[in-house]
Structures are given as structure tokens and as C-alpha cells.
Amino acid sequence: MQEMIGTLPVVRTIAAMRQVVAGWHGAGESVALVPTMGALHRGHLALLARGRALADRVAATIFVNPTQFGPNEDFARYPRDLAGDAAKLANAS
Fold first, then answer.
1. Is there a domain that residue 62 lies in?
2. Among 37, 63, 71, 91, whose CB has the most other CB atoms within 10 angstroms?
3. Rounded-to-integer distance, Cα 92 and Cα 88, Å
4. How many domains does the chain have?
């Protein structure tokens, strides 16, 4: 069963995402991916729009990757607003 945040389906594991994408591919649909670390802004939303223009389905990731932070950068303080980001994604679709 997929989790929902508002009207947006949320997938939290690689295995679950593979299953969702396999279903789309099995239905003959193409998929665009917009990888982000959240804190979505107009640039991300423009990438989503481009993905919609190029593919049948668009998936976005929101993953704050600790390996992208150096020793003097504050991973813990990176902005996280999953509900706000989900609302932006839902409104963009």
C-alpha cells in the first residue's frame, strides 16, 4: 500500500519505487525523474513541467543526501518541509 500526503502518493523505498516504475513501463508509459533534496522552488517546478512535456509520468525525489555535505556544512540544518514540498508537487501536476 502506498502512503499518501494529501493527494500525492509517496514512495519511501527503492524497491517500492522500482515496482511503481515497472508498472508504468509495463503499461507502455515513459517516465521522467526530477531528483531534488526538497526545499522546492520555481526551478524544480520548471523541471517538472519539462518532464511532463517529455514523458507520460513524472516522479520527483526528495532526498536530503548526507554525502552531498562537506565536513563544515550543516546537514542537520538543511531545510526540510515534506508537507510543503508535497503540496507544491501536487499543485504542479
1. yes
2. 37
3. 6
4. 1
562537506: which residue's cell?
A: 70
User: Which residue in this structure is represented by grid cell 513524472?
Assistant: 58
Q: What pLDDT digit, counting tens, does each position of 36-81 carry?
A: 999 999 999 999 999 999 999 999 999 999 999 988 888 989 999 9
| Inter-residue contact 47 to 34 (CB < 8 Å) | yes
Strands 3-5 and 8-10: antiparallel
Assess whether 25 carries a catalytic annotation. no
Q: Up-side HSE of residue 77: CA atoms within 13 Å toward CB?
A: 3
Distance CA 81, CA 65 (A): 15
What pLDDT was estimated at residue 1? 55
**Global pTM value:** 0.85
Cell of 11: 514512495
Which of 8, 38, 44, 89 is catalytic? The answer is 44
